[in-house]
Amino acid sequence: MMRSMFSGVSGLKGHQTRMDVVGNNIANVNTTGFKASRVTFADMISQNLSGAAAPNGTLGGVNPKQIGLGMSVASTDLIYTNGSVQQTGKNTDVAISRGDGLFVVSKGDQKYYTRNGAFEFDAQGNLTIPSTGLYVQGYMANGGEVTPSGENTTKIQIPAGKSMEAKSTISASYTKNLNATTPGYDVANVLVKYADGTSGTTNSYTPTETGKLVLTMSTGRKIYLSSTAPAQTVGHAPTGALYSSTISNVTASTTGTTGNVDAVLSLDPANSASPKAITGVTVPIVRTGGTAFTSGTYAYGDAYNISGKITGIVSSPPSDVELTLGTDNTISPGTVVKVTVPKPTSFTYKVGDTYTGQLKITSLTPKAGATVTTADGNSAVLATAMTTPITSAAAMYSHTGSAADGTITAITRESTYEYGGKKVSTISLNTKTGTSIGGLIGKEYNRNDTFYPSVTTLVTVYDSLGASHSIPVVFTKSANNKWTMSLGTGGDTYSITEKDGTTTNVTLTKSDLNFDSTGAYLNGSASLNLTYGNGAAAQQVSMNLAAVTQYAGTSTVSATSDGNAAGTLSSVSIDSSGVITGTYTNGVRQKEAQIAMAQFNNPSGLTKMGGNLYQESNNSGTRTISGASDIGSELTTSALEMSNVDIADQFSDMIITQRGFQSNSKIITVSDEMLETLINMKR
What we know:
By secondary structure, the protein is mainly beta. It is built from two helices and 57 strands. It folds into four domains: 2-53 and 63-80 and 645-680, no CATH class; 85-161 and 574-582 and 592-641, no CATH class; 166-183 and 452-565, Tick-borne Encephalitis virus Glycoprotein, domain 1 (Sandwich); 208-418, no CATH class.
């Protein structure tokens, strides 16, 4: 009779344990990374009343007579399945979305394991679990590269505002395509535009590269030195004969009498807009003193506009007309003058109209303060008046350095191109099809040549001080499957005036870029050699061209380079493999560390330590520590793994457990009643 009561008691104890587990599961339904547990039961050893008998010739077999003695808790198992992933928006939160890995955390020399990815950087830049202060373990990057090294983990430390040193560029890598079907054009002639504003057309254009020393002055001007100019010193005023060149134009100043330009204006028989005669004033007209030019830019041979209100008209046979201009005229202001002009055929002069005409500038004399611009690209503010008037297009100006130029802030070399003894600014190629295409001033072009439009790419180069420089590298098709390389102007030298006023000089060392018949890179190499005016060390940048292709279609060739400016850490991000990448103020993204992950043969065998932590046990198996991808795990950033507790299952288990508990309690009650009945049988 007592056996049933003992069985009922064991059932009560077992179901109480199961209820404890269910209650704990439900309590942790919102615990980050929590893994639910389950209880399994086993029956206790049964009492044998009689053993089993084998069949014999006269009787069949007899089963054993056994009475069970109740149940016991066989195990409490960890249900190691993945929980759902919930987005949090916090960039340091990490969820294990695939695989059975665990994060590795530490306190001193003791390592623990967790599925809780609610991480945060502390005041010293350590990645921690802020609720416990445990350090997240991982692998720190070396030179922007992370190499997982098994058990050799360390705490991850990325200080806020971490600085990145400047790194000079060593190589530039070119990728993508050059258009194999780039069309060619037959050259008819070349339109050359010069720095002095003039232009001309030629059938054969062969430029001369004239690298010149340049003085950058404290006034902001630049002085291009002649090859015979004496040596100069930074910080001092220039001295000696600096340059001599033909005068392009002069610019008058607006500062009172300083900087004025005297001029002589004459009739111009070659200009139909010029009067044939002027009565009432001396011709040529001399502009000096109060009538000198006080503003504007002028050159010998320019047309100078004149005007005046018509107050009278007289026909002057056979084909002229005499106009009387009022005192508001610009020829001789304040007096009445008469001009004889050709009789118009398309309109009629009338009193009250304003007459406009042109005179030719036949002499210019700039005064102190005026600016003289020469064909070599120089301009100078005169310290004293020019003693010899400009009376031809071949007039020369020679400049001697003085304190009026300011002080020299830098001495650099700039590459320029000349044609016909004048500095070239741009060229245009007129083709036989009637189109006009811009060309490169540093390349040679001839009538009947086949011209291919160029492709210009910009590569950013960082110097030893971390300053960036944009270098234009030009690709030009020269034949089928062959391309030449040059710098921005078409030559092998190029000068860049930087924002700070210094000059960067670039030279290109190269061989032709060749492709095979399938459009694949065959051979060709190039390198850039740079010298700087900002104090940075000279450097060489190799150009890797092996990834460039030549297929029909659009030219998309582009370049990337190593090196960077100095910067500070502005933000971090974590990818699916646990790699922490820092973004710096200089635009560089660099790997900083990688979160370590642990894997066990039997994760269900881990020992719970509380606080979402686990520890190895004798049955958890051998651990493997590495990166997430190495152990088959995948992470989701800005998210957390929630508990894997299924509420529906837990409530179902609760009901079943409750019914089991009630049933076992009923066994005890009935057993008690039976015992009571037995005792009451004796009166």
